[in-house]
Each structure stands twice: as C-alpha cells, then as structure tokens.
Design brief:
With about 120 residues, the chain is an all-beta fold.
C-alpha cells in the first residue's frame, strides 16, 4: 500500500532553515509528481510546492517562492523541502502529497514546523 512518511520538522528561530523529507513506498515513485502542503492552526490546508516526476519542473506558492526549494531523489524514493529564511507565518504541519494514483490522492501523517524565537 502507499505510504508517505515525513520527517525533519522541529522548532527553529525566525530566519533559520529546515529540511523536510518524505519517504515514499508502495508505488512507482519516479512516475509521479509530488507536492507539499501545510496547515496552520485554525486555517485550511494550503499548497506549498510541486515537483514533476523527473524533477525537472517545479512550482511554488507565492508565499514561499524564493525561500523554499522542492527536490527529489528517485533512487531513494524521497522528496525534500528545503526551507530557508523561515518566518513565524511558516509555522504549520507540513504534509507530503501524492496527488493522483489511479484516481486517489494520498497524504502522509505530517511533520510539525514551528518558527519562533
């Protein structure tokens, strides 16, 4: 079965950096685009970034453009989110997403990122 397991979250000061990882299994990882979303307390889940199956195309929400970088290692079946210049508004649970496999979307369990001094 499809499994997405995020890691790398934590507490960081404003201006700091974190690198999130999402380890995937149960499907042909290299054939599918992947996304990151986040959900802050009291807010709806929002799109953060997308990467194509081969890694050659990426897209970002305006709120993170220039600060976050999505990448992937198809040999390791892992997608990453490098987050730099973090802001308190980046505080959220971050989720890895497989958008569409045979008509279904899949989510990881999430990893908490807290930006605070």
């Amino acid at each position: 079965q499809v499994q997405l397991v995020e890691s790398g979250g934590g507490l960081v000061q404003p201006g700091g950096s974190l690198r999130l990882s999402c380890a995937a299994s149960g499907f042909t990882f290299s054939s599918y685009s992947m996304k990151w979303y986040r959900q802050a307390p009291g807010k709806e889940r929002e799109y953060v970034a997308r990467i194509s199956s081969g890694g050659g195309s990426t897209n970002y929400a305006d709120s993170v453009k220039g600060r976050f970088t999505i990448s992937r290692d198809n040999a390791e079946r892992t997608v990453f989110l490098q987050m730099n210049s973090l802001l308190p508004d980046d505080t959220a649970v971050y989720y890895c997403n497989l958008p569409n496999l045979d008509g279904y979307g899949y989510w990881g369990q999430g990893t908490q990122v807290t930006v605070s001094s």
